[in-house]
Amino acid sequence: MQPARLDESVEIPADTIVVAAYGLLIPDSLLARGLWLNVHPSLLPRWRGAAPIERALMAGDDRTGVTIHRTTAELDAGPIAAQEAFEVGPEDDAGAVYARAAEIAARLIRDVLPEPDFREQPSDGATYAEKITPADRELDLARPAREVVNHVRALSPHIGARAVVDGSPLVVWKAREASDGSLELLEVQPDGRRRMTYAEYLRGRR
User: Fold this and answer.
1) How big is the CA angle at 14 (ends 12 and 17), to the nearest 5 degrees?
2) pLDDT score, position 65
3) Of 6, 33, 85, 129, which has the highest C-beta tally within 10 A?
4) Which residues contact 68 (CB under 8 A, 6 or more apart)?
């Protein structure tokens, strides 16, 4: 079910409701009707909010996870029923992290649903993952290569980071830090064209 709005008129014939990637406010009147569980792809209280995977990658986190918690009025702050961490590889992009988080979330929900046992979520260490905006897509190629690579990883393969390279706008889908610390573009997409390796793009320009 993906109701366009939630108010007292919404009837959900279940005692427990699991919410995943649902960005609308759930009113207290509905929260009071049953147990609402939220699937959140971070190690709460770190990265509460709309874009936890993207923000974790942008920050260079090498570890994240999945949290199942009770939905409350405060954003992603409810007591925790289950939590599991996993390592993030240096080349993992958001797609890879989402896929791993989904596998873990399905297993955690299966284990939790019969009889969830909650512990209060700590407030210390809370950070917030703001929604990705158009400004977040813009790459600053003057930043250190590792920061740029992390930014590209965070927005691939679903959004794409943008940069102007030699006067031409490109969407950058893959990049890496070279052994000398410089930035190497690996996969790009010129406006109105398909994705291609950066080497293919350079050959086309010549």
Assistant:
1) 85
2) 98
3) 129
4) 37, 38, 39, 40, 80, 81, 82, 83, 105, 108, 109, 112, 116
Segment 136-154, tens digit of pLDDT: 999 999 999 999 999 999 9
Given a cut of 90, is residue 113 above it in pLDDT? Answer: yes
Which CATH number does the domain housing residue 109 bear? 3.40.50.170
Contacts of residue 107, Cβ cutoff 8 Å, sequence gap at least 6:
none
Residues 6+ apart with CB under 8 A from 197: 186, 187, 188
Residue 30 lies in a domain: yes
Last residue of a domain, one of 129, 161, 193: 129
Q: What are phi and psi of 142, to 5 degrees?
A: -80, -15
Query: Of 129, 148, 165, which marks where a domain is finished?
Result: 129
Torsion angles phi and psi, residue 102, rounded to 5:
-65, -40
Q: Whose structure tokens read 């009071």?
A: 32
Q: Has residue 139 been placed in a domain?
A: yes
Regarding whether 183 and 100 lie in a shared domain, the answer is no
Residue 42 near residue 75, CB atoms below 8 Å: no
Amino acid identity at 89:
G
Query: Would you tell me how many other CB atoms lie within 10 Å of the CB of residue 155?
Result: 24
Residue 7 domain-assigned (yes or no) = no
Q: Per DSSP, which regions of 71-204 are E strands?
A: 80-87, 128-129, 161-165, 168-177, 183-190, 196-197
User: What sections of the chain are H helices per DSSP?
Assistant: 28-31, 52-58, 94-112, 145-154, 198-205
**pTM of model > 0.90:** yes
